[in-house]
Ribose transport system permease protein (Microbacterium resistens), 331 residues
Amino acid sequence: MKSALMPRVKELGILLVFIVLVIAFSVMTPNFLDPTNILNIARQIATLGICAVGFSFVLITGGIDLSVGYQISLNVVVTGMLMAEFGIPWFLAVLLALVLGTVVGLVNGLIITYTGVAPLIVTLSMMMILNGLSYLISKGLPIFGFPAGFSMLGQGALLGIPVSVYFLVVVWAVGLFILNKTYIGRYFYAIGNNVEAARLSGVNTRRTIILVYALCGFFTAIGAVLLLSRLNSAQSATGAGFEFSVLTACVLGGISVMGGRGSLFGAFVGVLIVGVLDNGLVLMNVSEYVQLVIKGCILLAAVIYDAVSKRTRGRRKQIGGVPLATAKVSG
């Protein structure tokens, strides 16, 4: 009973942190709760929130994808060039961007599963490759001049709510369904807890991991399209460092970097915290470098907490007489 309540207690704690942060910025910056600023925050977190869904899947399986930032960069550049340079209709360019994002994620998954190289190394290498490709394609120059219909995706509103927020809600609904209502979601947790035990119990671990990275690439491409539409300009530097914002949001929300634990609800609250923190610090005219220090400290603290709490649970299981391996399989 106690163990079942623990995740909920942690999620409520994260929600409390978000509420305290909102109150603090409301006091320190008078314009923070202005409706225009709230809508601005909603637009800003749309890309972060959508990317966090796929990234959460990867973390839950015990992996990581450091190439997310430059996946965004490549998708933004390619999509922008297809529309501005080749005159391809925006809806077809968006479709091709989704295919590109899925293929990049698929390649990550295939390399990881068939070579056995650590996801950290594979995706770090992919990050460098995509960085180079985005600069080669754009030649380091901004790309602009997109159709008006495309701009509606990231800048438009429907019934007073940004269109990008509707995309965010749909993606999170799909993510929640996959994670909580399908056997595939259970496979994600099983692999994250103990990949060998999951394989021995009949889970096709290789295919599942490939699927996870493909989904991460697909969701990242959706986020990239919305970001491009909001900025209305494609640049190679777009998305640089974004992977650490996504990682910070997920870990803050209780997704374990060691795999097997976490929920999308917690990750969503983490996204809100990062979005509010970014916006509030900008309104307070805090230096960009100071912001990096603050977010780096937050990420480090969250990772340390995750590692310590996992070791503590492991010791409790051993003291209770439950074999650790068995406990992992049953989780």
